[in-house]
Amino acid sequence: MNPNPLPLDDLVPEYIRHFAAYIPSKPDDELKKLYGCDPLYRLNNNENPLGPPPAARAALKDFAPYKAAIYPSGDAWHLRRALAQKFDLEPDQFLVGNGANEVIAFVIKAFCQEGDNIITADKTFAVYEWIAEFSGFNARLVPLKDFSFDAQAMLEAIDERSKIIFICNPNNPTGTYWHKEQLTNFMERVNGRQIVVIDEAYCEFVEQDDFPDGMKLIRRYPNLVVFRTFSKMYALAGLRIGYLAGSMDVVDIIRRTCVVYSVNTLAQSAALKALNDDQHILRTREHVKAEKARLLPHLKSLGLEYQSGEGCFVMIKLPLSDTLAYRKLMGRGVMIRSMTGFRYPNWIRVSIGATAAMSAFAEALTELINSHKGIT
Amino acid sequence: MQNRYPPPKLILKTRLNPEAKLNLNTDPAFLPTVQSFIEKTVLAFGLEAKGALALTLAGEEIFNYLCDNLNLGAEIKINCRKGSCYSAVDFILPLKNLALQAFNLTATIDVDNEESLNEMGLLIASRMVDHMQISHNENGNLQLSLRKDKEYPKITAGGHPLRTPAAAPFSIVTPDTEELKFFVTASHLYTPSAFLPHDFYYPGKIVDMVNAGELHAAIIRDAAGAIGGGIVWRWYSAKMIECCGPFILADQTAALTPEQRRTAARDLLEYCLNKIARSPAVGLISLTPGPDLPQNHFEALGTVFEYHNNAPATEIKALFRLLQEDPGTIAWAHPEIEDFLRDEYRRLTLPREIRLSDSSTGESQTDFSVLTVDTDSNQSRKKVTLQPLWAGADLEKNIADHIALFNREKIANIYCTIDLGQSWQAAFTPILHKKGFQPRLILPYGGQGDLLIFQKTAAAETGPVL
Ligand SMILES: Cc1ncc(COP(=O)(O)O)c(C=O)c1O
């Protein structure tokens, strides 16, 4: 027994004491042992089964080990120049982070102080809410309406302490999006009083003509901040690299809370090579389209309700507990996302993976549904 | 419904509950200080004179006991807390240099000797209060908590018949005080009492618990304001939330079609799930699954029996769902329980690495064992839950002494939970078996690992028979 127990009650803020740490899934080898499955198909993280674009692969292969001894560019110098060129903005309008997750924290730290709140949806990517809550700021959660962000209700949720509004476009997990006019109407009504973050983590998957490109709206709306990531379409999730873009004044503020040197050399060089590979985007879109075309009729034939929009994932409603379904599917070697944590109890989200993985999923799901029918 | 642990307060932020703290040494000269501190404080909390007296007397017993059994001058803390519907007194003792065996409820008494039973401070204290818990608190201290509930008027079952039954579509809202009381009272009309929480006989208590953030409630309401049903939930343990309901306020033939009724119940449950989905809770448990509970959200954990003094035992079917993806864990098992665990884990599809722990390998043990107890005596049933705090060579005798004591106290419901995440607790299994306990169910992640709940079955000497 420790003779002098730490006075944790005195040291730890109330909002941390009651916050549960997020426990990521165990590594594959451990999971295979635990669930007795091999192979294990991961369809839980919306990764790109095609892998990184060829030029990025080459950059990874050519990485000289001696470079590991040297600090990376502390502010992703070359990558920011390439981004500026691609999106017709200035390099200083970009901040690169260790995944888009890290830039979420930069923005919240830059604008919120005690008593402030952020506004987002109840059923969206959880990290905006988490970072706000464990930093001691209230997250106001506006219910989705018909699986979509509800602009009117979000505007009504604003008060004088609201600092940031997070919109996920297209939304993870529902795949819905605000079209151009919806977004610009919203920006007009916010009228520059709050920072509006548009998280475009999945924008490269969207082919709809009316889908707004946040980068093009930054000039018009200086309070707009756009998030993008190399984890999804560009398949560099393992290297952890994402970024934000905004008006010069706003980015200048956010830069003050930004952790420099948090993005490694390998990630920067692979991202630089990945950025302009449009062929890779087309190939990935084709793959997602083809697999969805196989999956959705199958779900229908099983009598399952689903929600499939933009992005490389589909939500499915099950006649049993999603956390039980997770365990049962794991036993069959398929890992999906159970959605109680997204506030969609009894729904699961499956990422569009490689063809073999999707076949394994379809088979395991069929067995699960049929065996469940036998029980009830 | 007892709050068995202080509830983490993430879900509903509440104003801080009143508290008063006293630091002192275990010196009998301080007895009057302790007495007036407890009495004045709990009276100030609003506890009735009778309850305040009982709690004060219980506190005096504990303090005397500590003076007798701790080194003179040991530092202790006494903390009076005002809960929603109760006042509590915690004695917090640093574990350092503590002779833990003194905290077995049976310590210093001879269970066969009636007189010694009456002299036993801890036991007497437990008889005077509604709830006593000896536990190991988060900061490594031993904590002895006494709790006395406020008295509330009991409603006569039946409630008010609904003049205008609610009709779909509904919206789900947090009830105001009057709506909450209406829902609680009216639920007696439409749901058999076996499915309702005992506290539903005391609407004022429910209101107090909800206002204090210890209980949470949601109701469905139609466009005209008529209430169609509701659900309540609360922390059951540090990691588990318990829900009671949904209860729909309509008889089977009423305004709602079966489909509308199912939808209303599902929406209420999902509302509750969405409220707790991103909380630190790992699971939601339902111990009184009523007719409206959407079972397809749950898994059946198992059954325990509740024995009553003058009535047949009732079955409690525990339903459960995890709120998160199961990352898998280790379960330490004594060989005697291995088959049970394997079968249960297979049935529940819970990924567990079962590791066998064998206590017959001859290494030396400490002489004494310690069990913590949680006694619950404020309801129609008397119930006690044992938990291992320390294993030792006298374990078998210690458990036997506890059982003898509970028999004498006419406590028919004796449970023992062991934490499968803690290897040393495996040694309890063969002794529990020998003493007539049966494993009833596994509560996933109920402790450091899964909790295995044993229940003492009715052996000849305990009275009630299954
Ligand atoms: C909507 C959304 N935003 C941001 C992220 C975080 O991405 P990164 O891997 O760049 O941290 C994700 C990842 O799942 C996401 O779904």
How does this model look, in words?
- Chain A has 376 residues and is of the alpha/beta class.
- Chain A has two domains: 8-51 and 279-373, Aspartate Aminotransferase, domain 1 (Alpha-Beta Complex), CATH 3.90.1150.10; 54-275, Type I PLP-dependent aspartate aminotransferase-like (Major domain) (Aspartate Aminotransferase, domain 2).
- Helices cover 40% and strands 15% of the residues of chain A.
- In chain A, the strands form three sheets. In chain A, strands 2-8-7-6-5-3-4 form a seven-stranded mixed beta sheet, with helices on both faces. Chain A has a four-stranded antiparallel beta sheet with strand order 9-10-13-12. A two-stranded parallel ribbon of chain A has the order 1-11.
- In chain A, strand 12 (337-338) and strand 13 form a beta hairpin.
- Chain A is globular.
- By secondary structure, chain B is α+β, with helices and mostly antiparallel strands.
- In chain B, the strands form three sheets. Chain B has a ten-stranded mixed beta sheet. Chain B has a seven-stranded mixed beta sheet with strand order 6-7-8-9-10-12-11, with helices on both faces.
- Chain B is built from ten helices and 19 strands.
- The two termini of chain B are 24 Å apart.
- In chain B, strand 2 (75-82) and strand 3 (86-94) form a beta hairpin.
- Chain B is globular and about 65 Å long.
- Chain B has helices at residues 31-44, 49-69, 114-119, 121-128, 177-190, 203-211, 258-276, 338-347, 395-408, 428-434; strands spanning 19-25, 75-82, 86-94, 131-136, 141-149, 170-173, 216-222, 227-235, 240-248, 283-286, 299-306, 314-322, 329-333, 352-356, 370-376, 383-390, 413-419, 437-443, 451-456.
- In chain B, helix 1 packs antiparallel against helix 2 and helix 2 (49-69) runs antiparallel to helix 4.
- Chain B folds into three domains: 9-149, Heat Shock Protein 90 (2-Layer Sandwich); 170-297, Aminopeptidase (3-Layer(aba) Sandwich); 329-464, 3-Layer(aba) Sandwich (Aminopeptidase), CATH 3.40.630.
- The interface between A and B is large, with 43 and 35 residues.
- Bound molecules: pyridoxal-5'-phosphate.
- Residues 46, 99-101, 125, 168, 172, 199, 201, 229, 231, 237, 242 of chain A line the site of pyridoxal-5'-phosphate.
- Pyridoxal-5'-phosphate is lined by residues 46, 99-101, 125, 168, 172, 199, 201, 229, 231, 237, 242 of chain A.
